[in-house]
Design brief:
The chain has 377 residues and is α+β, with helices and mostly antiparallel strands. It contains nine helices and 16 strands. The strands form four sheets. A seven-stranded antiparallel β-sheet has the order 2-6-7-1-5-4-3. A five-stranded mixed β-sheet has the order 10-9-8-13-14.
């Protein structure tokens, strides 16, 4: 299997400047390819695949000499991505799905990124050699395995730092599994309740997270007031103080995001480390749940889809079967002891936190009862 690694880069000012230049060139070539293919399509001319785009790019470089300062393979990957986007567009049109042309990458809204060729990068213990940029330090030593070939390397910028991500082919890890089944009930009161009794608290309710979110709101109010103070008609002027505040806001947003994501990774790792034969989770309708204006903020912070995504690749790595319970399976309304399902007016409401069976009298925590039902699914 191919395992991905992502690590932060520590470039100097000159290298960072070159990274922004390469990202800009990649975005320009991507947009140029989209416009080129769109024009041919509207004229009824034949689509040119990525293999045939080379001579057109060479001719375009003669008119735009500055593109020659960028790594050639980065530009090739950029127009290959654009051609792939057009192929996906054709596939949807063929299926009868009305779909617009592939979108252009905006300079202001698109994440700066570029893709060096896998043969041109060289990774050592704590450095990586990138074409046209040079040797760049890595923030973690001996994190990325040193192999002959890396798949799909990408260099991205998140607003504060540059990162490099690569795929490394590794042997499948198949540990000996226990003959157990774990049911995992995801919720808002607690992030997850496992059928063996393990409870993962809602990290967003901790004092640290509340303090960070309160500080974030305060900074956002400050920058909003400064924008209003510097408004000239319908035009907003960005002052140096606004730029400083926005950088503080970005740092705080990244810190909050990293704390949440680290907690999710810790939880999913601990689940697969128990090495059960199966893990059962609900196929939650997150899109529908987000329509509830009273709970949408809390649901968004929990990151249910991200937990599901992490479990999918981690269980695959361990050889554990991941079962998605049916969306309409009444795990919260069914007694885990006798199997009786509460229906109609007898159904539990969201505010009811204890399950009591009207048939056998069995009483237990609502979420733990649901998790046990999922393990028996």
């Amino acid at each position: 299997m191919i395992k991905s690694y992502k690590v932060r880069l520590e470039p100097n000012k000159q290298q960072e400047k070159q990274m922004f230049f390469q990202a800009g060139c990649a975005r320009y070539v991507y947009n140029w390819t989209i416009a080129f293919q769109k024009e041919r399509y509207e004229k009824g001319e034949k689509f040119i695949s990525a293999m045939g785009m080379s001579k057109y790019l060479t001719a375009h470089k003669k008119e735009n000499v500055w593109l020659k300062d960028c790594d050639a393979m980065t530009l090739i990957i950029a127009y290959t991505d654009a051609c792939t986007a057009f192929k996906n567009f054709f596939r949807e049109v063929k299926k009868g799905n009305a779909k617009s042309y592939p979108r252009f990458k905006s300079r202001n809204r698109t994440t700066p990124a570029f893709a060096p060729h896998y043969q041109t990068i060289k990774i050592s213990e704590n450095t990586v050699k990138l074409p046209k940029i040079g040797i760049v330090k890595l923030s973690r030593k001996n994190y990325i395995p040193i192999v002959k070939k890396y798949s799909n390397p990408r260099v991205t910028y998140d607003g504060l730092h540059w990162y490099i991500s690569v795929g490394v082919e590794q042997e499948d890890y198949k540990p000996e599994l226990n003959p157990t089944v774990l049911g995992v009930d995801l919720g808002i009161k607690d992030l997850a309740i496992v059928s063996d009794g393990t409870v993962y608290k809602n990290i967003n309710k901790t004092a640290e997270m509340k303090k960070l979110e309160k500080r974030l709101k305060r900074l956002q109010r400050q920058v909003s007031k400064k924008y209003d103070m510097n408004k000239d008609g319908k035009v907003y002027h960005k002052t140096n103080n606004i730029i400083k505040l926005e950088k503080q806001i970005l740092k705080l947003q990244h810190r909050i995001r990293d704390i949440r994501n680290n907690y999710r990774h810790t939880m999913t790792h601990q689940l697969v480390e128990k090495k059960p034969q199966k893990i059962v989770i609900e196929d939650l309708n997150v899109k529908g749940m987000m329509k509830n204006k009273h709970l949408s903020d809390a649901i968004g912070k929990q990151g249910f889809y991200e937990i599901q995504r992490q479990l999918q690749y981690k269980t695959q790595e361990y050889g554990i079967e991941l079962v998605m319970a049916d969306r309409w399976y009444p795990s919260s309304q069914t007694c885990s002891k006798c199997g009786h399902t509460r229906t109609g007016k007898d159904r539990l409401k969201l505010k009811d936190r204890t399950f009591t069976c009207p048939e056998c009298g069995h009483t237990m925590d609502r979420d733990l009862n649901a998790a046990i039902n999922l393990s028996q699914y």
